[in-house]
Write a structure and sequence with these properties.
Strand order of the largest sheet: 6-9-10-3-11-12
Oligomer: single chain
Strand content: 5-15%
CATH architecture of the largest domain: Up-down Bundle
Distance between the termini: 31 Å
Structural class: alpha/beta
CATH superfamily of the largest domain: ABC transporter type 1, transmembrane domain
CATH class of the largest domain: Mainly Alpha
Shape: elongated
Radius of gyration: 35 Å
Largest sheet: 6 strands, mixed
Number of helices: 22
Length: 596
């Protein structure tokens, strides 16, 4: 049994690049808010109705203290009919405000959910158009966190917090206007603590903002660690790395906890501060009001009205304090989403053309390329792959075989030289159009959640059931599919983990047969299967390669004996080329690889 490792190195530095502040935030949070507003503005009708409902809520809340004070003055004057009238109006307004609250919630939620749906749609669409280089340098878990956690934070903020913020701000403005209208002296007294409120709010905002940014980034790191560990759980279990993985997760969770606590503590201070200012404001208003009432400058009802306003003014301040943390999280989350949206996408020039038919003549002419500008992987590679012929690429690990395929498929663009298909530079061909003519069978086959038929049909979404069955028959996949309890309707999940590696490969071959590509790429497609399964796969390949230009990458050299030409790569250069027999007779690099 493998011994669990306790001495795993700290992983923290590895994730530092993914916990940096998004570039979009460096231009200020206003730019983030403006971009969020563009998404919200697409739902103006819902927002207008929600805001009108907010104004209705504010109007009633502003009017209520005045009616309370008016009722008190009616009692003092013995005006019972006037008191009943004020009470009746308050009773009716209570029902009306409930309707306005429901209306506001409904339409603001519709606007918020619509905006977040559009944001997720744009984010996912951008991810689909990002170059492969982007995914090679970033953890998938962090991208998933931006799509889910950050978008959820934005959703809750736009749906609840923003409407609450609008209502609170409008109530503050409306209340101050009414107070000034009723009595300037008392209004000024009620506003004495406002400067303290704003200064305190700005100080707390500055302290908490950076922690909320770090919290969202830490959440992305934690998701990446978990996704990586679960996705590779077989390796974790087989290597006895349970404690190591737990340690990584605990460290990421500890970082998240620390930043979350610091962020929430800073925001948590806001509530008690606002309560203190509220109580101070009420005390000042009550004391000053009692003095003015004793001097007959104001009525008792006016003092009651102002005290009620002083108490109610603090309520929206508390609400603003409570939603502040959510808003900061949403801004940080939105910045992380916009960071992906701002990534340069994989684009085609306007002059790039579509191709309706590809004969399959492929030429590499003096091609040089490096994933890193300082490290060249392919050096002046030149070869012809005629239509309908089989070209094999062999060499030790790191020789550049897969890089050749990455360039042909335009996953990466070459640094110099030319690659042509049927005489046309592939850089002048629309990427999607070019890739639609290519069929790729990889060593690691990915199957999607769905039925067997659905997975085969990914090669041609509009294929009929009969076409699916014919593709499975040609791929030698039909025998094992038909033995399944539900046959082609069998549901696969978790990348088809209930199938053997060879069965997954046969489904991938059936998918490729159905797509009917002009150029076929087989990348180590039989390296992980047993000899009998390899025979079935090789038979399927013969049906698949018939009449197609084929590129074969293989370490098991007996699988490429029938190739028309074999290219031997070493350190990014072609050192030998020829048929299997010619290269064996030459006794060079290929012969040594074959014997080994």
């Amino acid at each position: 049994m493998a011994k669990q490792r306790n001495d795993a190195p700290a992983f923290k530095g590895r994730w530092n690049n993914f916990a940096k502040e998004p570039e979009v935030l460096k231009s200020g949070k206003r730019s983030v808010i403006k971009r969020l507003w563009r998404y919200m503005s697409a739902y103006r009708k819902d927002m207008i109705i929600g805001m009108l409902a907010s104004l209705g809520i504010v109007s009633i809340n502003v009017a209520s203290p005045y009616l309370i004070g008016l009722g008190i003055d009616r009692i003092a004057n013995g005006d019972i009919p006037g008191l009943m009238k004020a009470v009746s109006i308050l009773f009716v307004l209570n029902f009306i405000i409930s309707y306005f609250v429901w209306l506001q919630g409904k339409y603001m939620t519709r606007a918020a959910q619509g905006a977040v749906r559009d944001l997720r749609r744009d984010l996912f669409a951008r991810i689909q158009r990002l170059p492969l280089r982007y995914f090679d340098s970033r953890p998938k878990g962090d991208l998933m966190s931006r799509m889910t956690n950050d978008a959820d934070t934005i959703s809750s903020t736009l749906g609840d917090s923003i409407s609450q913020l609008i209502t609170s701000v409008c109530f503050l403005v409306g209340t101050f206007c009414v107070m000034l209208k009723l009595n300037v002296i008392m209004a000024c007294i009620c506003m004495t603590t406002m400067p303290l409120v704003f200064v305190t709010g700005r100080i707390i905002a500055a302290k908490s903002r950076k922690n909320f940014k770090k919290r969202q980034a830490d959440l992305g790191v934690l998701n990446s660690v978990i996704q990586e560990s679960i996705g590779n759980n077989r390796a974790v279990i087989s290597l006895g790395l349970g404690k190591h993985v737990i340690g990584k997760t605990e460290e990421a969770a500890e970082d998240l906890k620390g930043d979350a606590i610091r962020a929430l503590i800073a925001v948590g201070v806001m509530g008690p501060c606002m309560n203190m200012f509220r109580n101070l404001n009420i005390a000042i208003t009550a004391g000053a009001g009692a003095y003015l009432a004793a001097k007959d400058i104001v009525t008792v009802g006016m003092v009651a009205t102002m005290i009620t306003y002083a108490e109610r003014v603090s309520r929206p301040l508390n609400e603003i304090a409570n939603v502040y943390g959510t808003i900061q999280s949403a801004i940080a989350g939105a910045a992380r989403v916009f960071e992906v949206l701002d990534e340069p996408r994989e684009t085609d020039d306007e002059t790039d053309t579509d191709v309706d038919f590809v004969k399959g003549d492929v030429i590499f002419d003096n091609v040089t390329f490096g994933y890193d500008p300082d490290k060249v992987v392919l050096k002046n590679i030149s070869f012809d792959a005629p239509a309908g012929k089989q070209t094999a690429l062999v060499g030790t690990t790191g020789a550049g075989k897969t890089t050749v395929i990455n360039l042909l498929t335009r996953f990466y663009d070459i640094d110099s030289g030319v690659i042509t298909v049927d005489g046309k530079d592939i850089r002048d061909i629309n990427r999607d159009s070019l890739r639609s003519k290519l069929g790729i069978v990889l060593q690691d086959t990915y199957l999607f959640t769905g039925t067997v038929a659905d997975n085969i049909r990914y090669g041609k979404p509009d294929a009929t059931d009969e076409e699916v069955r014919e593709a499975a028959r040609l791929a030698n996949a039909a025998p094992f599919i038909e033995k399944m309890p539900l046959g082609y309707r069998t549901v696969l999940a978790d990348s088809g983990s209930n199938l053997s590696h060879g069965q997954r490969q046969l489904l991938a071959i059936a998918r490729t047969i159905l797509a009917d590509p002009s150029i076929l790429i087989l990348d180590e497609a039989t390296s992980s299967v047993d000899t009998l399964t390899e025979k079935y796969i090789q038979d399927a390949f013969r049906a698949l390669m018939k009449g197609r230009t084929t590129f074969i990458i293989a370490h098991r050299l007996n699988t490429i004996r029938e190739a028309d030409e074999i290219l031997v790569l070493e350190n990014g250069e072609i050192v030998e080329r020829g048929s299997h027999g010619d290269l064996i007779s030459a006794g060079g690099t290929y012969a040594r690889l074959y014997k080994s």
